[in-house]
Structures are given as structure tokens and as C-alpha cells.
Write a structure and sequence with these properties.
3-stranded mixed beta sheet; about 45% helix; about 10% strand; 5-stranded parallel beta sheet; single chain; Rossmann fold; Zinc Finger, Delta Prime, domain 3; 23 helices; flat; alpha/beta; about 600 residues; 4 domains
């Protein structure tokens, strides 16, 4: 049965792990010196070896014959851990077992000693997916675990792990693997699997893996079906445009040739290239050019390595740092909105149109790029075109110095033709008047006109509301009060009549005791019903407000007026008490001794 390359070539010892020497050496030294921690936390991006190192460490701490800190992979314990027959090493996925009940079950099982290994190891992958109650349940046993217990936690998002968990674990950060190391590993695996892999294709796969060895092996497995894996094979399998096509497309954008850029994108679309992948490659090229522009000295370590320096320098000169930054911002915005777009091709075409026509972009970065382009190129070009070249001037002849005049020298004019000037006396000489400067008339400043006071308009008097006169109140007729009707006096009623009227309102036991003249006596006077009851039994059963209310209800219809009921105890004598007992003994369920 065929097995995927990333599973088949997963490292089995620390020495096979690529690009994580700073971690593997530390773990090997701890295994050799037996200075192991009870909890480890492995941090890093996908495919960098976190789970692989966790499994190797679990084998190394339980190996019967470790070799320089590495597991031997030959003892029964190592083989049992590899094939999953030893249950003391448990690998748990926190993404699907993230409830507090799962962690409580793990905690209850962890206290038991290992059955077939030295230590009981729990590997919890994607530990950041645990819920908050699950982290709280894990905290106590993680703080003080038994001597036979070890936890190895792995996560890609450190910020989601609580600080209480971080403080109890030994942390190891896994770095992204460099493209050179990934390419070397791919060449070795391809040689072992008899895959004809070219070095340029290995470098391209290493760049596409983005620092993850697992992704690189998966891409190699995807392209390994060809007779020979070249760069063109990788680009075709990945649906990518390729470096040449990407450079050509960006050249059309730099020349602002919209029709040529759209025609080339249409050709790539016909070849089956993904619009999102085309934009990603265009962004990668401009990103390298931007790194070349802003960090010229250290740009070699920042570049992807897919483009030569001459090509990148040409794009830096064509766009400038501001233009490259604006283009990258536009591409990123399109890529973010492409997941919600109905037509990915239309989104990519609109993005190319905006890149070719910067004036159609309304964001601040595009405007800054256009201003920077005008400031950098337009003034220098205009100065170079409008300023004429200076002409070479002919050397001017030196002026002759005047010769000194002597007293005996003849005058420079002919005395016969031109008479000498008349002598003049300094005292009588009056120089001609100098022309007077005409003074300009400056009119005096006009007095400032003070603004005339305009009184504010008086507020309009609103008419005062005068309510209409109220109509005169007519005297209300008040009828004279009617004379109060005095209640009619209650007529005299016998006690037997009242007892007979209360029979339907009382239970038989109460009525039989009320009807017994030896225990209860009553008489009516002036609307007051006085009921005397024996202290021994009748008063205890009938001397209640409920019985009084029942008697009142029975007596009022007979008297025709209001009746007040008064219950009083009767003076009890021995014969009366005996008669009361004899009367009660008539009931079959009562027996007195």
C-alpha cells in the first residue's frame, strides 16, 4: 500500500530533523543527562517538526538502549510506540477533545503507573483549542504531576494559551526551515524514491513550502508522477504563471499598457491559471522589488530568490518605493475581497486595471505614490529639458592703463583750432542748480467713517391672549339629606331555632355537641347571642371563631337584623361532666373507662 512521502520520511531520531538543531541538541542533552522536565511546550508554524519531535522525545525517554540521546528504534518499547501497541504514550488532538470532561478523564487516568514503559507520556496537539474550563482542569496535574508522568504540548498560536500554563512548561520555539535546507532534503528524498527532480524545481518547491517541510514533501509527492520534475512541471501542477509570465505582466503594468496586461491575463486564464495565484505571484515579485528598494544592503536575505537583481532594479526604478507599496496594498485588498466575490476573474481584472491606471485608485497610498513620482521625476526632467547648455564666451581684451600726464607735455588738443578753456575762480564759481526732484503729492488720509449706529429692530409685540369670560356658574341643586334609617330591632329567637338553622352549616359532630343542652346553652337578648359551653370538651371544639361566624350566619336571617355572637365558658360541675360523658358515649366509636 502506497504511503504519502511526508509520513514515510518522517524523522525517527533527533538527527534526522532538519532545520531545528537548536531544539534537537537541547533535548538530546537532557535525555543523556536525565534532566528531563515534566512538561514541554512546542511552538511553531505548521510542518516545522513539533509533533515529530514530541514523538521522538516520547520514545527517547522510554527507550531501553538510547544512543547518544536518540531512541534506538530497535527495542520492544520503541517498536511498540511506533506501531501504537504501547498505551502509555497517548497522542491527543485538542481540536476534537477540548471539553472539560475529556481533560478530567485524562487526569483520572494519568495517576496510574505505566504498564509497559518507564514514563506515561501525553502528547496534546493544538493545545490552544482547549476551552477555559479544560485548561483549569489541566492546571493542577500539570503543576504537580506524578514522577512517572510527562506532558508534551504543541501549538501554532501561543497567544491563546493561558499564562498559567506557559509558566509551568519548558518552551521551545520551532523556526521556519530555510529554502536551501528544504531543497537539500527534497533532493535526498527524490533520490531515494527514484524521482528525477531538477535543482531549480527543488528550489521552487522549497519557496512554495513557506518554511514547512511537510508542505514541501506533499508538493513533491504531487509532482512526482511526472517522468522528470522541472520548474515548468511544478508551475503547471500548482496552477502558477511562472516567473517569466509574472515579470512580463508587471512590465505591462509599469508601462501602463492596460490592454496588453488584460490580454496576457486572459491567456493565463485560458491555460487554467488561478486568478488568486496570479495575483499572489505578482505581489511576491513586487515585494522583492520593495525589499530591494528599502533595504539594499540586507535585501539578499529578505528576497525569495526567484528573480535576478537586474529585473528587480528595473521595477524599483519604474515604480519607486511608494508605487510598489501602493500596488501591494491594492493586491492585498483584492485578495481579501476575492473570497466573498462571485467572479474571481472579474476581481483580478479590476485589480489589473487599477494597477495600470493609478488615477483610478482612490486610496491615500496611491495618491502619495503619484505625488512622489511627480516630485522625483517631473522637476528633474523639466529642468533638464528647459535649461539650455551654457555657451563658451570669447575672452575679453584687457583694458589699457592710462599713461600719466606730465606738466611739460603738450595738451591733447590743437591750441590753434580749439581755444583753451577760460580760467575760473573757485570763489566766483557757482555750480548750476541741480534739478529738483518732484515731490509726489500724497493726499492726506481720509477720516475713517465711523459706522452709523443702527438701533436693533424692536421686537414685535405679540398680541396678549385674553381668555374669554367664563360663564357664570349656576347654583347646583343640593337635595336635602334623607333621614337615616335606624336598623330595626332584632326579634327574639329561641336557641333551638338557631341550632336547627345551623345544622346545614356545620358537620354532624359539631352539631350534635351544639344541640346537647348539657354541654352548650344559648339565649338571645337585644341582638346578642350568648353561648355558654362546658369547659371540658365543648369549649375546646366549639369555642372557635369559625363556629361563632357560623352561628352568626344562622341567626341573622331569623332575627332580621345584625347579631353579635359571644361565646363564654360554663361553670362545670361533676354531674354535668358525667352527663356530658354519657351523652358522648352514645356514639359507637367513643368509649370511656
Amino acid at each position: 500500500m502506497y504511503q504519502a512521502l511526508y509520513r514515510k520520511w518522517r524523522p525517527r531520531v533527533f538527527d534526522d530533523v532538519v532545520g531545528q538543531e537548536h531544539i534537537t541538541e537541547t533535548l538530546k542533552n537532557q535525555v543523556r543527562s536525565d534532566r528531563l522536565s515534566h512538561a514541554y511546550l512546542f511552538i511553531g508554524t505548521r510542518g516545522t517538526g513539533k509533533t515529530t519531535c514530541a514523538k521522538i522525545l516520547a520514545k527517547a525517554v522510554n527507550c531501553e538502549q538510547p544512543v547518544n540521546g536518540n531512541p534506538c528504534n530497535c527495542c520492544p518499547t520503541c517498536r511498540g510506540i511506533d506501531d501504537g501497541t504501547i498505551l502509555d504514550v497517548v497522542e491527543m488532538d485538542a481540536a476534537s477533545n477540548n471539553s472539560v470532561d475529556d481533560v478530567r478523564l485524562l487526569r483520572d487516568e494519568a495517576i496510574y503507573s505505566p504498564a509497559g514503559a518507564k514514563k506515561r507520556v501525553y502528547i496534546v496537539d493544538e493545545v490552544h483549542m482547549l476551552s477555559k474550563p479544560a485548561f483549569n482542569a489541566l492546571l493542577k496535574i500539570l503543576e504537580e504531576p506524578p514522577a512517572h508522568l510527562m506532558f508534551i504540548l504543541a501549538t501554532t498560536e501561543l497567544h491563546k494559551v493561558p499564562a498559567t500554563i506557559l509558566s509551568r512548561c519548558q518552551r521551545h520555539s520551532f523556526k521556519r526551515i530555510t529554502p536551501d535546507k528544504i531543497a537539500a532534503r527534497l533532493m535526498y528524498v527524490a533520490g531515494q524514491e527514484h524521482i528525477a527532480l531538477e535543482p531549480e524545481a527543488a528550489q521552487l518547491l522549497a519557496r512554495l513550502a513557506d518554511g514547512g517541510m511537510r508542505d514541501a514533501l506533499t508538493l513533491l509527492d504531487q509532482c512526482g508522477g511526472m517522468e522528470r520534475v522541472t520548474s515548468e512541471t511544478v508551475l503547471s501542477a500548482m496552477g502558477m504563471a511562472g516567473h517569466f509570465q509574472t515579470v512580463k505582466l508587471l512590465e505591462h503594468v509599469a508601462a501602463q499598457d492596460t490592454s496588453a496586461a488584460l490580454a496576457q491575463f486572459r491567456a493565463l486564464w485560458q491555460e487554467g491559471k488561478d486568478p488568486a495565484t496570479v495575483l499572489d505571484e505578482l505581489a511576491s515579485l513586487q515585494r522583492d522589488a520593495l525589499m530591494r528598494a528599502v533595504a539594499a544592503r540586507g535585501s539578499a536575505a529578505l528576497l525569495s530568490g526567484g528573480y535576478d537583481d537586474e529585473t528587480l532594479d528595473g521595477f524599483v526604478q519604474a515604480f519607486g518605493a511608494a508605487g510598489l507599496l501602493a500596488n501591494l496594498n491594492q493586491i492585498q485588498a483584492t485578495r481579501a475581497a476575492m473570497s466573498q466575490s462571485v467572479d474571481a476573474r472579474l476581481s483580478a481584472e479590476l485589480c489589473l486595471i487599477r494597477l495600470c491606471r493609478p488615477e483610478l485608485q482612490g486610496d491615500l497610498l496611491s495618491l502619495s505614490a503619484r505625488v512622489a513620482a511627480l516630485e522625483a521625476g517631473a522637476p528633474r526632467q523639466a529642468k533638464a529639458e528647459n535649461t539650455p547648455a551654457p555657451k563658451a564666451e570669447a575672452p575679453k581684451p584687457k583694458a589699457k592703463e592710462p599713461e600719466p600726464v606730465r606738466a611739460d607735455d603738450p595738451p591733447p588738443w590743437d591750441e590753434d583750432l580749439i581755444p583753451p578753456p577760460p580760467p575760473w575762480d573757485e570763489r566766483t564759481y557757482t555750480p548750476p542748480p541741480m534739478p529738483q526732484e518732484e515731490r509726489r503729492f500724497t493726499p492726506p488720509p481720509l477720516p475713517k467713517e465711523e459706522p452709523k449706529f443702527t438701533p436693533p429692530p424692536l421686537p414685535k409685540e405679540e398680541p396678549v391672549f385674553t381668555p374669554p369670560p367664563l360663564p357664570k356658574e349656576e347654583p347646583v341643586f343640593t337635595p336635602s339629606p334623607l333621614p337615616k334609617e335606624e336598623p330595626a330591632p332584632a326579634r327574639a329567637v329561641r336557641w333551638e331555632e338557631i341550632c336547627k338553622a345551623a345544622q346545614s352549616l356545620m358537620n354532624p359532630g359539631q352539631y350534635s355537641m351544639l344541640h346537647n343542652a348539657a354541654l352548650v346553652r344559648g339565649h338571645m337578648e337585644n341582638g346578642v347571642l350568648t353561648v355558654e359551653m362546658d369547659r371540658s370538651l365543648a369549649y375546646m371544639m366549639l369555642g372557635t371563631p369559625e363556629v361563632a361566624a357560623t352561628l352568626k350566619k344562622a341567626a341573622e336571617p331569623l332575627t332580621g337584623g345584625s347579631v353579635q355572637v359571644r361565646i363564654e365558658p360554663m361553670e362545670s360541675t361533676e354531674p354535668t361532666q358525667l352527663r356530658s360523658l354519657e351523652e358522648l358515649s352514645r356514639f359507637g366509636n367513643v368509649e370511656f373507662k
